[in-house]
Specification:
Layout lengths: L7 E7 L5 E2 L8 E4 L2 E2 L11 H10 L3 E4 L10 H6 L4 E8 L4 E9 L8 H47 L11 E8 L7 E9 L2 E9 L3 H20 L4 H15 L6 E9 L4 E7 L4 E4 L4 E4 L18 E4 L5 E5 L1 H4 L2 E5 L5 E5 L1 H12 L4 H16 L8 E8 L4
Antiparallel strand pairs: 1-2, 1-3, 1-7, 3-4, 5-6, 6-7, 8-19, 9-10, 10-11, 11-12, 12-15, 13-14, 13-16, 16-19, 17-18
Length: about 400
């Protein structure tokens, strides 16, 4: 404004349909009159709407003086109504759009802006647009960093809900679990509890969706499972109680598949129930069995849903393996004989084969072998869903 000895000027920003808006930070239009800053509302600013709209729409640099005519823009009516003698208006350009205008006019009779003034104003508009773009990018980067920090903190909290110490002084069993979210946080979970001296409980689940909503639902279900399992001898009854609570608070269609078992360490008897989850796989060196198929829907869908308990017996050396769909539905591209590419899934067969080969090494060795094989199968891509397994090897009583 000083450089071109401007009389009056304002910076206005572009809204939907080229609506003129004030500064988003202070809510005022930044204006200068005779060298003095005078913040104002949009309604208080009297400008040539014809000129402003054309600059916003076409991105043209515009200079008009009273008495001029123009083939496409004629602000003479608004100039006369506002008693203006000269108008200068240039766009404020960001990288991809016009974010606003620098508008300068005067009502002084012997004060007319020149082409040199226009060029200088256009350069200022371009520089201001670049500065604004840098500021927007910086704000976006800071916001992204804040979100990443929040998500990382959420994962640390989420990990706190999952069992991490798998050591046990009970020689009758060995247990290990691992989850690897597709994003920083996920909806897969597992749990292990000592019900009493001779019984232990296992749980695996998969909340629909991903990200923070799934992670928060997972945390709630785990906390409630640990309460429910202490007062019930039936996994089906535990599922009923968890379903009752999730249905009440479930929003946006969130539901959860769950499989839960109770194992008697004295005799290997297991009692389990499955709410829409993948079956349990029992493996040893010389056999593999699929048990505990779904006896009802996932929890969180139907308030009156019910499930049935299923019974089975483990023999010493058997390892129970629970898994989520991120394992068996991990995909890889395969080129067919016709030259076309097709996606194939890892599948239960591959899981069972790898688990049986690694079973003698214990649950941790088994799970690490499966995850390594899933990574190999999907390479060079990564699995698209959360990958979670929990395994328990029954060693027998005594």
């Amino acid at each position: 404004m000083d450089a071109i000895r401007a009389h009056r000027g304002a910076v206005l920003f572009a809204g939907p349909d080229n609506q003129l808006l004030p500064c988003a930070v202070c809510g005022k239009v930044h204006t200068i009159l005779d060298g003095e800053a005078m913040p104002a509302t949009v309604e208080e600013i009297e400008i040539s709407g014809t000129v402003a709209r054309r600059v916003l729409q076409d991105g043209q640099n515009v200079l008009f003086q009273s008495g001029w005519s123009h083939s496409t823009i004629d602000p003479s009516v608004s100039m006369a109504a506002l008693n203006l003698t000269s108008i200068l208006c240039v766009p404020i350009r960001t990288q991809d759009s016009i974010s606003g205008i620098l508008y300068i006019d005067t009502n002084i009779v012997d004060h007319a802006y020149t082409q040199d003034d226009l060029l200088l104003a256009a350069a200022a508009g371009n520089s201001a647009g670049l500065a604004l773009q840098n500021a927007y990018n910086h704000q976006a980067l800071l916001q992204k960093q804040r979100i990443e920090q929040d998500v990382e903190a959420a994962w640390n909290i989420q990990e706190g809900f999952l069992v991490s110490n798998w050591s046990t002084d009970d020689p009758r069993f060995d247990i290990y679990g691992r989850t690897r979210p597709a994003r920083i946080v996920g909806g897969d979970f597992y749990d292990f509890v000592r019900i009493d001296e001779n019984r232990v409980g296992m749980l695996i689940g998969d909340v629909s969706g991903k990200g923070m909503p799934a992670a928060l639902t997972m945390a709630q279900i785990l906390a409630e499972f640990r309460l429910c399992v202490q007062g019930s001898t039936s996994p089906a009854e535990v599922l009923r109680q968890l379903n009752e609570r999730l249905v009440v608070r479930s929003q946006r269609g969130i539901f959860c598949t769950i499989a839960a078992v109770a194992i008697n360490l004295e005799n290997g008897n297991i009692l389990g129930a499955n709410a829409g989850h993948h079956p349990l796989v029992v493996v040893s060196r010389d056999r593999s069995v699929t048990l505990l198929g779904a006896s009802g829907p996932p929890i969180g869908i139907l308030s009156d849903a019910s499930w049935e308990d299923e019974r089975a017996v483990l023999v010493p050396g058997d390892t129970m393996v629970f898994y989520t769909d991120g394992i068996v539905e991990a995909r890889a591209g395969v080129t067919m004989s016709a030259g076309e590419s097709e996606l194939v899934e890892y599948g239960v067969e591959n899981l069972t084969e790898v688990a049986r080969a690694a079973a003698a090494g214990g649950p941790q060795r088994l799970i690490e072998a499966v995850i390594h094989d899933v990574d190999r199968f999907c390479s060079p891509a990564a699995p698209h869903d959360d990958c979670t397994l929990i395994a328990l090897r029954y060693n027998g009583d005594g």
